[in-house]
Amino acid sequence: MSISIFGAPMKYGADVDGLEDSINSLVKYNKKLKDKIKVVEVKKDDKKSPRNLKHIGIISDYCNKLARIVNKEIEHSNFPLVIGGDHSVALGSVSGVSKKKNIGLFWIDAHGDFNTDKTTYSGHVHGMPLAAIAGLGDNRLANCYYSGSKVKNNNIILLGTRDFDDKEAELIQQNNILNISSREIEKDGVIKDVQLALNHLDSNIDGIHISLDLDVIDPSICPGVSVAAPKGLKYDDVEKILKIIFATGKVISMDIVEYNPKNDIDYQTVDILNRTIELVERLAIKFE
Ligand SMILES: [Mn+2]
Fold first, then answer.
1. Which end of the chain is more exposed for a tag (fewer CB within 10 A), N or C?
2. Ligand 1 centroid, distance to 256 Cα (angstroms)
3. Domain limits of the chain?
4. Per CATH, is 3-286 categorized as 3.40.50.300?
5. Which 3 state secondary structure label does DSSP give 23?
6. What is the per-residue DSSP string for 83-133?
């Protein structure tokens, strides 16, 4: 097995500037990554889109393309690692990984990302990918790469959350998604909550995908994200979470998203991103 790292410098899901420079800034910070990362280019969006689904056309095209690329890696038994860009790209990677597979999904994020075109206030698609993965929302998202839901509701775990829209929170409850907040993790400790989450998954899953949004980490140490939310996790906790999940030997793919160099301070966030990539490279090989 080898790791294939892809750069997905998408910004349209967050509809803010800065994310388009994510991969450039990362490889400037760690020049050794330059030859390792294959960038999946984002075209310029010049089409009109509805207010509740901003840039839907370019995002759904991109996710379909990324899904094909990621699926090819899975078929070759490689480990795809997608670096964002905004979190909408995870719809592409999860769609690619989950084709013909029953996967478990860890969505490690300050937010629920469980809005649909009906519940959203902002219209930003990076707040919708997890709902789309569960088969909800606009068809262009819910039917990405292949039609229907990508992961069974009971195999989706939200971890480290603390910031939801009202209707989004309702939708998460209605769909019985296991949601473990950052406050619960602080109270219980990482080991207990991640173990609880692992026990919640089907025992016969074909693999686990981890989608790590850097905004799960406290913004005082990880400010370079698009939508910062206070009272986040310590970086140490994120490392522990990854080590415990990888130790199952079931992790087959991962995303690390939302690094926005425009909001970074003193290279804190790019350093965390770089360290996390190095950790994932070690863990993926150790537990293959
Ligand atoms: Mn997210």
1. N
2. 10
3. 3-286
4. no
5. helix
6. EESSTTHHHHHHHHHHTT--EEEEEE-SB-----TTT-SS--GGGSHHHHH
The stretch 87-107 carries a mean pLDDT of 98
* Residue 242 reports pLDDT greater than 80: yes
Whole-model pTM: value is 0.98
> What CA–CA distance (Å, rounded) separates 213 from 276?
12
Contact 124, 137 (CB under 8 A): no
| 226 Cα to the center of ligand 1, angstroms | 9
pLDDT averaged over every residue in the chain: 97
Instruction: Kindly give the distance from the C-alpha atom of residue 149 to the centroid of ligand 1, in angstroms, as a whole number.
Output: 18
Distance CA 17, CA 279 (A): 28
Gap between the Cα atoms of 23 and 10, Å rounded: 10
In the reported structure, the alpha carbon of residue 109 is separated from the centroid of ligand 1 by a whole-number distance in angstroms of 5
- Answer whether 93's CB lies under 8 Å from 255's CB: yes
Is the predicted pLDDT of residue 78 greater than 80, yes or no? yes
Give distance in angstroms: CA of 211 to centre of ligand 1.
8
pLDDT at 42: 98
Total H helices, total E strands in the chain: 10, 8
CB 135 within 8 A of CB 148: yes
pLDDT score recorded for residue 288: 76
Reading the block at residue 166, the tokens are 């009202």
- What letter does residue 287 receive in the DSSP assignment? T
